[in-house]
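Board notes, transcribed. Complex of a protein with zinc ion.
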Amino acid sequence: MALTCTDILTQTPHGLCCPMGGFHIDPVRPVARALITHGHSDHARAGHGAVLATRETLRIMAARYGADFAGSSEAAALGEERRIGDVTVRFVPAGHVLGSAQIVIEAGGCRIVVSGDYKREADPTCRPFELVPCDVFITEATFGLPVFRHPPARDEIAKLLESVALFPERAHLVGVYALGKAQRVMALIRAAGHDAPIYLHGALEPLTALYKSEGIDLGDTPKATAAKKSELAGRIVLAPPSATQDLWSRRLPDPVTAFASGWMRVRARARQKGVELPLVISDHADWDDLCGTIAETGAGEVWVTHGQEDALVHWCRTRGLAARPLHMLGYGDEEEGGAAEAARLPAGPDETTVAAGHTGDSS
Ligand SMILES: [Zn+2]
Ligand SMILES: [Zn+2]
């Protein structure tokens, strides 16, 4: 009897399950055996019996949850095939954050690629996305609407550095998510030639230290709380998005508030968060890259998960591809504001006003 791809991978309340291999991928509840695509907390949870992930992802999980985050763990070398039950599995770079991987599953002549989260834009802090031709491609859809087109990240960093030069008496407080975005923003600032210290909120320190220990050069990154207020004038300070609004930010001299996120495309979101300087920098594929990647894989079937599924499913169908939304619960990218945030989109036309040419707009 011929296998179909749905024999290989099925959807369960715990997440995607491969019964032939006896494992789940990025399960949202504890399972006996989990394969994890990357370290963001909605994909990598503690409490599984056994975890297989890249060495970097295992380090990130240990840093967040402690060394006993799973009963046992094993590092998957990128590109290396391994047999698990009746399927063959391989981890391939996804270009999302340090250690992020797509998971390729093969059995009976059918190849399925589970992308996890991914992006195609170059990122100095992680390995680039590697395209794997496949029969079924399971794509994320965090920014799966045509309104989401990310500008080059270096242009957004240039806006930040222009503002720093323009307001030497003020600090620039940039909201960034702790895993991936923080380190990528620092690396981009360094690539733009800015070599002054970049001050950090304490919550960003452990993962930044982990990135540095993996050989990623982020320059001098002292603790913001150890600096005198006057010392922070004309400096860039990174903090988790929540800290940019609260008491913590009062230690900074007249801060310009920035936020680095793909959601900053939506002007209303920036306004609502009190962001003066929105920086459209995302670790997820934008609409063009989602569509382009689907086409490049040559997959005849596409499963769309967590995010704005419907527009992407529609796009696939108009191109003759079999496509379905998975509507999986429990995933909402911590680094992009969560499923609740996604659910608020799309809103009315004035809610999705594209924030183009937005430097310094303080409305
Ligand atoms: Zn992620
Ligand atoms: Zn995700």
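The radius of gyration is 21 Å. DSSP finds nine helices and 18 strands in the chain.
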